[in-house]
Every structure is written in C-alpha cells, then in structure tokens.
Amino acid sequence: MVASHHTPPRLLSAAVRALRRTDRARTDEARTDRAPADRARTDEAPADRAPRRRLGPVLILGLLLLVVLVPGRLLVAETFEIPSSSMVPTLQPGEHVLADKLAYRFGDPHRGDLVVFHSPRTGEVLLKRVVALPGDKVGIEDSALVVNGRRLSEPYVKDAALIDGEYFGPIHVPQGSVFVLGDRRSDSVDSRVFGPVPESALIGRVDALVWPPSKLRLFR
Predict the structure, then answer these.
(1) Which end of the chain is more exposed for a tag (fewer CB within 10 A), N or C?
(2) Which CATH superfamily is domain 82-218 in?
(3) Enzyme catalytic residues
(4) Cα separation of 110 and 219, whole Å?
(5) Predicted confidence pLDDT, tens digits, the chain (220 residues)
C-alpha cells in the first residue's frame, strides 16, 4: 500500500506565500532589467523622430523648387547644341549656347543678335544671326552685306573665304519679320533660301556660350 503524505494546511499556505513572493521578486527584477532599455527607447525616440520632422520640410522645399525651376528652365532659358558649321568662326559644331526665351516677349530683335528659331520652311530649330530688321532693304553685293544702301562691317566674319561672292537681293524685310544669315555664308541655309523669319517663330536670343567651359563667354 502506498502511503499517503498529507501536507499540513499551515505549511501549504506558507509554501504558497513563498512561491508568490518568489514570483513577485522575479517580476520586479524583470521590470527593473527592462526599465533602462524602455527608458532608452523612450529617450531615443524623439532623437529618431527629429530628423524625420526636419526631413519633411526639406523634401517639401525640394519638390517646390523642382516644380518651379524645371518649368522655369523651359519658359525662361534653354541650352542648344550647335549641329553644323554654318556659324563658324563664332560657334563651332558641338558647342552649347544658352538662349534667353523671354528676350523677344518683352523686347524687339536687334541687328547682330544671335537667334534660335523655327525654320519657316521645315519647322526645324536653327541658329543664325539677325542682319536686317522689319522695313530694312537687305542684299549682298560683291561679298559685302548691304542694308539700306550701306555696306555693313561684320567683325564676326573674320575670313573672307567664308563669305559667298554671289550677289543676293536686295529684298525688303516685311513688318514683323527679320532677315537672318549664318556667319559662314558659304555653308549656311538661311533667309537667302527660306526668306525672312517671322518674329513669332523666334524661340530666344543667344546670350552665352556655355560649353565647353574653357570657351565660356557672353555675347552681350
């Protein structure tokens, strides 16, 4: 027969109280161990959130600048690459220029301006020099540019071999248009071919050579 061992009630109660005290001690110890980590996380949280709070306005500002400046580039100024030798020696193929797209919205073209425009014949984008204005009588006589009966000095054409010896015109430039020529007359498709350019076709005035950096210069 297996003997039964009964624990007296008082001893059982004491044992239960001892177990409870042990459990409370372990719980308190665990809380004590976790507290520094919890406080550390609590202390670190604002520091983690602070950069995020600062990052928000920076991102917003960046997006605003992107929204303002990118369209501004298209509306105010734009760069163009020189594709041919028609503007030699002023501009060489592969160079890049900056065109002011507001120049003719608030002002008029001037003789000598370098302009970017849409060809009246094909619509392609070209770059030439304005040599005659609305109402002018323009022609070429013995390789010399003649405007309103006067031969004009063209210091930008430094090599006479680059000028056609052919005669052209004279013609009258209609109101609201300009007459454009390439600086290298012998290798340029310009107003001698497609006629005067309507001012509405002008994209902008070339104000600077911006590439390559070693040749950086202003035209005004």
Answers:
(1) N
(2) Umud Fragment, subunit A (2.10.109.10)
(3) 86, 128
(4) 13
(5) 322 333 333 333 343 344 345 445 444 544 444 444 444 343 444 444 444 445 565 555 454 444 444 455 456 889 999 999 899 989 999 999 999 999 999 999 999 999 999 999 999 999 999 999 999 999 998 888 999 999 998 888 866 665 665 788 899 999 999 999 999 888 889 999 999 999 999 999 999 999 998 989 998 7
